[in-house]
Every structure is written in structure tokens, then in C-alpha cells.
Amino acid sequence: MPEIRRPALPLQAVEQVARFVQDHHCDGIDVQDLADAAGYSRHHFSRAFKASTGVSPSAYLAAVRIETAKRLLLSETCAVIDVAAEVGFDSLSSFTHRFATTVGTTPARLRLLAQRLEHSAVAPFVLCAPNQPGVAVTPVLPEGVADSCRIWLGWYPTPAPIGLPAAGQLGEYDEPMSLPLHPGAPWLLGFAVEESDDHLHELAPAWPVVARHDGPITQPGAVTLTFRRASIDDIPLLSALPALAK
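Given the sequence above, the corresponding C-alpha cells read:
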């Protein structure tokens, strides 16, 4: 049976929802509020939003809340429970669980990681599935991004960087990068880690440099991955990359 293609939201509607979420994600809004902001019924909006972004509206809203929580944890000294309440979580345990499963570390450990990065930058590392054929990746950075930056390439089960990557590699931009395929996680997403003395910029940049391959990759070969500055409607890359290094 052929796959049923769901109608996507117009780009203008996606951007409108993204701005609404950015302005109100700490105000207790839900998917119905997002549908109202876009001018659609909840049922049609949920299907069309996922067709446009690759994630459900609830997952997108949660991702923006966790991204805000990361920034608060790294820039403020308030208690974790206060951060959880600030971004709309009623339960500290549910906040901690969601945070750990998407960022790769707990809120308290993220702060410790930031302290460690003040003394030494994270070294390149590889997480991969053994005995898998590789994909040679040529990253292309936008103008104005230094060639000395590091590049994260990761395999994800969906075309959005929500949740931890199944595998990946952090390497130097000017070095060849070959990434072993990972069964079950065919989406190649990238993130440029620009050099900075500010750990907030490294762990939770406001406007990161990102890339996503147009389609899933299941066969070895060579691809070019073009990076760009993230726009307002991009899903935040939540993983704290230094926390993934073993």
C-alpha cells in the first residue's frame, strides 16, 4: 500500500507557531493553544505540523521548554525545582526525567559539566555501531563561521534532534569525517561547535549552526552536508554534546 502523504503547514504558519511558542512556552500553553495560534483545528494542526517538522506539536513545545531550562541552569544560580516551574513543569521528577532523556545528563550534572568546560574543552570523540559500513561526509559551513570550529555529526531516528543520538562523531572541521551507519537511526543531523570562552554558547547557543540531510541514509557512500544558521522554527538540538563523550 502506498504511503499516505499528510498535508504540511505553510511555512508562514509554522513560523507563526514558532514565534508563539517562543513568546509563551513558559505560560502553561498546550497543543490547542498552538492550533489556535495557527488558525487550525487541533486534529488537522497536529497532523500538518508533524508533516512539516518531523515531530509532534507536544514534542516541539517540550523541546523549547527544555532548551530554555538549559539556558537558565547555565546562566542562573536558582534551584533546579525553580527552573522546572519556570518552564512549565509541575513535577521535579518529570522535569528531571525529560531533561536527562533529551539532554543526556541531569540538570545538576549539566552545571557541573559547565564548570569542567571552564578549564578544558571537550576533545573529539566517536560513538558508533561496530562493524557498520561508513558514509563519508563533507561539511560545508556558511560564510562567517570559522573553519577552526568542531563539527558534530549524529544519527537520529527522526529528522529532528529530539532525544539522544543513536551514534555520532565530534571532530575537527578541516579533517575528513566518515560516520558508520547506524541501523534504525537513518537521519544525519549536524551541529557546528564554534570556539568560545563562554560555556553557555557551547552547551546552549542561541542561534546554532545546524544541518540536516534531505532524506534518510541507509547505504554507504558520500554526502555533502550544508550547514546554516538556525531559524526560529528549527527544533533545538538538546543534547549536551560533552555529556555524550565517554
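The mean pLDDT is 86. Try to locate this feature in the C-alpha cell string yourself.
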